[in-house]
Amino acid sequence: MTKADIITKISRKTQVDESLVSPIVESFMATVKDSLANNENVYLREFGSFVVKHRAQKVARNISQKNHVIIPARHIPVFKPSETFKGQIKQE
Fold first, then answer.
1. What percent of the chain has pLDDT over 70?
2. Residues in CB range of 12: below 8 A, 6 or more apart
3. What is the three-state SS of the chain?
4. What angle do CA 38, 40, 43 make, to 5 degrees?
């Protein structure tokens, strides 16, 4: 499902024109991205959480060149579904 599909479904369910739904969806996504960029987690009850996880620095091997490569520490966005959400997926 694409963003356009989501906008179309919301438009049909709410009977609101797609031209009005589109900026709302865009604004929601921008708000989530901005929050995660500022190290703020986003919690949506009965849906899930968008959280920022810290990955520690690690050493990896480059097998073709037979040397070690240091992968620096970094932050990554992660989505964790709620128990309600997971239950709905398991039933279907």
1. 99
2. none
3. CCHHHHHHHHHHHHCCCHHHHHHHHHHHHHHHHHHHHCCCCEEECCCEEEEEEEECCEEEEECCCCEEEEECCEEEEEEEECHHHHHHHHHC
4. 145
| Residue 70 contacts residue 57 (beta carbons within 8 Å) | yes
How does pLDDT run across 42-64, given as a tens digit for each residue?
999 999 999 999 999 999 998 88
Q: Can you give the pTM of this predicted structure?
A: 0.78
Distance from C-alpha of 6 to C-alpha of 63, rounded to nearest angstrom: 43
Q: Are 22 and 7 in contact (CB under 8 A)?
A: yes
